[in-house]
From TrEMBL:
Pathway: Nucleotide-sugar biosynthesis; UDP-alpha-D-glucuronate biosynthesis; UDP-alpha-D-glucuronate from UDP-alpha-D-glucose: step 1/1
UniProt catalytic activity: UDP-alpha-D-glucose + 2 NAD(+) + H2O = UDP-alpha-D-glucuronate + 2 NADH + 3 H(+)
Protein source organism: Duganella aceris
Enzyme class name: oxidoreductase
Keywords assigned by UniProt, alphabetized: NAD, Oxidoreductase
Organism ancestry: Bacteria, Pseudomonadati, Pseudomonadota, Betaproteobacteria, Burkholderiales
InterPro entries, alphabetized: 6-PGluconate_DH-like_C_sf, NAD(P)-bd_dom_sf, UDP-Glc/GDP-Man, UDP-Glc/GDP-Man_DH_C, UDP-Glc/GDP-Man_DH_C_sf, UDP-Glc/GDP-Man_DH_dimer, UDP-Glc/GDP-Man_DH_N, UDPglc_DH_bac
Name of protein: UDP-glucose 6-dehydrogenase
EC number: 1.1.1.22
UniProt record similarity statement: Belongs to the UDP-glucose/GDP-mannose dehydrogenase family.
Pfam families (alphabetical): UDPG_MGDP_dh (PF00984), UDPG_MGDP_dh_C (PF03720), UDPG_MGDP_dh_N (PF03721)
Length: 451
């Protein structure tokens, strides 16, 4: 099938590359000329395991093209996926300007039937607004062309995006109950058929329920994390090991093991903004989502927990003190620094007067970019970007771990102890066992593990 993807970011690029891998002829559009030039010269703008091979293979096969040509992109696909960003507006609601701009472009250039699919995460009612934007453009041209707007939210995780897209737990699709909606349903059924061969994974529903499902999923996952973080903080007070508790409750199939890891708080481009956007939707209907407000507040506090532990141990005045920091990306296997807990930790340490040496296996370039925005010149001067995890340790009072990269899981503890000024580790991801660390001669501060 001929498919157009509008927006070539994390979701658009992965969707485009993976749909091309299934044999479709995919046109990826972006307004960012630099990004398109990079992709056309064989580069990949993001770190995502396996993506470079899928992109290279399908470009070489002529099934995947990248362009900024709007008219050509609209002409290409009968199915037009909108996968542009929906960042938070000033009030926390989803900013739909990019989605609506993409819709207007389709309306300006279409010459025949189109299925427009909202893949971006968008609030309930957005498909109606996309449809209205298209209709306005068509009316301005005096055209009465048919189209249908469907919803097909994306559930991939960064760091595992290709794997998630190619082996989805479920595919959620919302279509209208109109003749155009039926046509959209048939086209999308055909497009997603390869994913449903062994088991039907598609959940068909109405458009608004599909839009809502995406927010419900992210809000539920964020709630589990904040709930565990809150319990972990209490565990620290009462002498309980949150890891034992996690195993204990997770083995109840009604609870399950996933997304119960207490830590340094959730980051990334999605949970924080989607929790806020859902709260905002509720407020528009005079409803206060109390749980989600708490989820957000707990997370904001949680991002400060590691820094607070450092201050509790070393005092408010950290001037003259140096710390090693491992892990900057908001999670492993990505270079994404959006809402990363490491940014909050670094600000706390630098505010206290400390200096730091930081290391991340892939996010160093992105970290330099965002820290230049977060920090003033004086603070930035106290950050050293190290070449390796071990290179951070010299003269450090303690090691602080923020992201659970595999490369940090089995370090040489003797070397760490020898390099640090004091054998102290703050572990924001509970990578190690407190007893093992005590035996190895470390003072170990996990999250919810003060047993
Ligand atoms: P992103 O910022 O990485 O990419 C968005 C791209 O859209 C950018 O390259 C931008 O230049 C481009 N763009 C903006 N306006 C455009 C226009 N009018 N025409 C063409 N291109 C345009 O964003 P992302 O992380 O891919 O997220 C996209 C959407 O998917 C969001 O709604 C997000 O919530 C959702 N989502 C993201 C993830 C994720 O893991 N990142 C997962 C599921 C859903
Ligand atoms: C999340 C969802 O998992 C995806 O299903 C969804 O498609 C995506 O948001 C989105 O809508 O954009 P992502 O943000 O890429 O994916 O990464 P996650 O693996 O969900 O991690 C998010 C944050 O939660 C990370 O900071 C991670 O460290 C934290 N986390 C995760 C915990 O603190 N504890 C856990 O148990 C799990």
């Amino acid at each position: 099938m001929k498919i157009t993807i509008i927006g070539t970011g994390y979701v658009g690029l992965v969707t485009g590359a993976c749909l091309a891998e299934l044999g479709n002829d995919v046109f990826c559009l972006d307004v960012d000329q630099k990004k398109i030039d990079l992709l056309n010269s064989g580069g990949i703008p993001i770190h995502e395991p396996g993506l470079d091979e899928v992109v290279a293979r399908n470009r070489a096969a002529g099934r995947l093209q990248f362009s900024t040509d709007v008219a050509a992109s609209v002409a290409h696909g009968e199915v037009q996926f909108i996968a542009v960003g929906t960042p938070p507006d000033e009030d926390g609601s989803a900013d739909l300007q990019y989605v609506l701009a993409a819709a207007r472009n389709i309306g300006k250039h279409m010459t025949g039937f189109k299925v427009v699919v909202d893949k971006s995460t968008v609030p309930v009612g957005t498909a109606d607004r996309v449809g209205a934007a298209l209709r306005t453009e068509l009316d301005a041209r005096g055209e009465r062309l048919a189209f249908s707007v469907a919803s097909n939210p994306e559930f991939l995780k960064e760091g595992a995006a290709v794997e998630d897209f190619m082996r989805p737990d479920r595919i959620v699709i919302g279509c209208d109950s109109t003749p155009e909606g039926d046509r959209a349903r048939e086209l999308l059924r055909k497009l997603y058929a390869p994913f449903n061969r062994n088991r039907e994974r598609t959940h068909w529903m109405d458009v608004r329920s599909s839009e809502f499902t995406k927010y419900a999923a992210n809000a539920m996952l964020a709630t589990r994390i904040s709930f565990m973080n809150e319990l972990a903080n209490l565990a620290d007070q009462v002498g309980v090991d949150i890891e034992a508790v996690r195993h204990g409750i997770g083995s109840d199939p009604r609870i399950g093991h996933s997304f119960l890891y207490a830590g340094a708080g959730y980051g990334g481009s999605c949970f924080p903004k989607d929790v806020q956007a859902l709260e905002r939707t509720a407020r528009q209907y005079d409803q206060d989502l109390l749980i989600l407000r708490a989820v957000e507040q707990v997370n904001d506090k949680q991002k400060q927990v590691l820094g607070r532990k450092v201050v509790k141990r070393f005092g408010e005045d950290l001037s003259g003190k140096h710390f090693a920091v491992w892990g900057l990306a908001f999670k492993p296997n990505t270079d994404d620094m959006r809402e990363a807990p490491a940014r909050v930790l670094l600000k706390q340490l630098l505010d206290g007067g400390a200096s730091v040496a930081v290391y991340d296996p892939v996010a160093m370039t992105e970290a330099k970019r965002v820290l230049e925005l977060d920090l003033n010149a004086g603070e930035l001067a106290r950050v050293r970007f190290a070449d390796s995890p071990m290179d951070t340790l010299t003269d450090a009072e303690a090691l602080v771990i923020v992201t659970e990269w595999k490369a940090f899981r089995s370090p040489d503890f003797d070397k760490i102890k020898a390099a640090l000024k004091q054998a102290v580790i703050f572990d924001g991801r509970n990578l190690f066992e407190p007893e093992v660390m005590a035996e190895a001669g470390f003072e170990y501060h996990g999250i919810g593990r003060s047993i």
